[in-house]
Specification:
Layout: E1 2-8, H1 18-34, E2 38-43, H2 53-57, H3 61-69, E3 74-76, H4 79-82, H5 87-95, E4 101-102, E5 106-108, E6 123-128, E7 131-139, H6 143-147, E8 151-153, H7 156-169, E9 174-180, H8 200-203, E10 209-211, E11 223-225, E12 228-231, E13 239-247, E14 254-263, H9 272-289, E15 292-296, H10 309-321, E16 326-330, E17 341-344, H11 345-351, E18 358-364, H12 365-377, E19 397-399, E20 403-408, E21 413-419, E22 422-423, E23 429-435, E24 460-462, H13 468-479
Parallel strand pairs: 1-2, 2-3, 3-4, 7-9, 9-10, 10-12, 16-23
Antiparallel strand pairs: 1-13, 5-8, 6-7, 11-12, 13-14, 15-17, 16-19, 18-23, 18-24, 20-21, 21-22
């Protein structure tokens, strides 16, 4: 049997690439079929990205709708799908498409015998021209990130061995791993603690092909490691991967293969049907985006290098939402202010972008002072935390209205901290609202350990399936104005 796999991975919300990518898919699919090849179209995960408004406002459903329209026949879960919006949104995303979404090592935290959400599959058998092809999917491990949502990623190797046995019992002749583990072939760059595609062939010699994602690796051409052919097509839809397989009719093993990455650039004309579908998806997303959620009673400007009226107002909202005594967070988690007048969801999204989560904890006055001192001393106060993404500096501490901070700059020295008009008592216990960046349970990484948790102290994730702008939106709706 001759089988052609067309594949892409790590789109990260680059939806404008999809009409051009589909032009290549149609061309390569027709050419392969003319040569007598069967064709499978596969997605290697991370089509979603919280930084892209169409993806974020629909919690990944915009890009999944386009994958469906393009005829994707199977996808593996990437961290872009499962690590962003929480369990309810993840379940809706899987249910929004008819193609199988695979991930055998993403399981329920309370009951690991169950997959993370209904509709998710570990593996399946596809029969093409009487030849049974087994597909199995696994994803990279992000333990703490997933567990806050009630599911976890577990060791992929036992899952692979179990599913290989299941697929073989169903008569699968050729086994394809759809992987979001990542692939690092250079020993100098390989981390011993990360299990990747390059490790699978030695442990699972029954697997014939690995179509991967996660590390955005350009394998041009695909490579053979042990018994398996490994393919990955970079990122952002810049390439369509093509892998042609000559499969033994009796054993299903790969007798021969060839493959390449096909550039998807401005020389490729966009497909009009997928282009029109993209327009419709954007129109629907824009209806959600441009809905009015409240009113700004006055101008709320924003600054990074001086106290920000908008960021301080957000701190007031966090104090109220968390039923806290005070709120303090980096004003750099707000990007711009609001003008007096109607507030749309777009306004809040652009003012409070990203995936910042809200947290709260009961801490001492001494810990609060320690946190503020660390915020003032942080190099990220004046430097970008993520320059590759164009992130601004984190700026100064933003505070709820009942907090007054006095400090000296550039000495970065806190000289006074008042709560409700009185000096903050170091022994006083207070409920503090903040963001996960400065108030979190990470105690083994100095870069994130701002608060200095004491034994027994716990940090509460506030509405963990929503991020800062979504939580503030609900607050604005409840108040009517900001």
């Amino acid at each position: 049997m001759r089988l052609t796999l067309l594949h892409f991975n790590d789109l990260h919300g680059r939806l404008d690439q999809l009409p051009r990518l589909f032009t290549l898919i149609q061309r390569e699919r027709a050419e392969a079929r003319a040569r007598g090849h069967a064709v499978l179209l596969l997605d290697g995960g991370d089509s979603s990205d919280r930084k892209v408004w169409e993806s974020d406002i629909t919690k990944g459903r915009a890009n999944f709708a386009l994958l469906e329209a393009m005829g994707v026949q199977a996808s593996v879960v990437g961290n872009g799908e499962a690590l962003q919006w929480g369990r309810a949104a993840f379940e809706r995303l899987v249910a929004s498409v008819r193609f199988p979404v695979l991930c055998g090592n993403l399981v329920d935290l309370a009951d690991p015998a169950r997959l993370a959400v209904p509709g998710l599959e570990s593996s399946l058998v596809v029969e093409i021209e009487g030849h049974k092809i087994g597909l199995v999917g696994v994803t990279a491990i992000f333990r703490e990130g997933y567990e806050r949502f009630g599911y976890q990623s577990v060791d992929p190797l036992p899952v692979l061995r179990r599913e290989i046995s299941n697929l073989q019992s169903q008569g699968a002749q050729t086994l394809i791993l759809l992987s979001h583990l990542g692939c690092v072939l250079d020993p100098a760059k390989k981390r011993a603690d990360i299990y990747g595609d390059e490790n699978v062939p030695a442990d699972c010699p029954e697997i014939d092909v690995i179509v991967g994602g996660h590390t955005d690796t350009e394998l041009n051409p695909p490579v053979r490691v042990g018994n398996a052919v490994i393919a990955q097509a970079g990122h952002y839809g810049q390439y369509l991967g093509r892998l042609d397989l000559d499969l033994d009719d009796d054993t299903g093993r790969v007798r021969d293969f060839s493959g390449r990455l096909i550039p998807c650039d401005d020389r490729v004309p966009p497909d009009p049907t997928i282009g029109a579908t993209l327009d419709l998806v954007r129109e629907e997303a824009a209806r959600l985006f441009d809905a009015q959620v409240g009113v700004a009673a006055r101008d709320l400007p924003h600054f990074f290098d001086q106290p920000s009226p908008f960021a301080n107002r957000v701190a007031d909202a966090l104090r109220d939402i968390c039923r806290a005594d005070l709120a303090i967070f980096f004003e750099g988690f707000t990007f711009r202010g609001l003008q007096a007048g109607p507030i749309t969801r777009r306004d809040l999204y652009e003012a409070l972008p990203g995936s910042t989560h809200v947290t709260a904890a009961e801490v001492s006055g001494a810990q609060i002072r320690h946190m503020v001192e660390r915020m003032l001393a942080s190099k990220y106060r004046t430097e970008s935390f993520d320059p590759k993404r164009g992130e601004p500096p984190l700026g100064l501490p933003a505070c709820s209205g009942n907090v007054q901070l006095k400090y000296q700059l550039p000495e970065r020295q806190l000289t006074e901290c008042l709560l409700d008009g009185q000096p903050l008592d170091p022994a006083r216990r207070c409920r503090l609202a903040s963001t996960f960046f400065t108030l979190n349970p990470i105690t083994d990484d100095p870069e994130y350990d701002y608060i200095g948790l004491e034994p027994g102290q716990r940090v509460e994730n506030i509405r963990v399936e929503e991020v800062l702008w979504e939580i503030v939106e609900d607050w604005v709706k409840s108040k009517g104005s900001m």
